[in-house]
Amino acid sequence: MEKIYEIQAIKQEVRETTKNRYTIRSPFDVAEHAYNLIGELDREAFLVMVLNTKNHIIAYHQCHLGSLNSSVVHPREVFKAAILNNGASIIGIHAHPSGDPTQSQEDVLVSRRLSEAGKILGIEFIDSIIIGEKVNGRVEHISLKEKGYL
Question: Is 20 within the bounds of a domain?
Answer without folding.
Answer: no
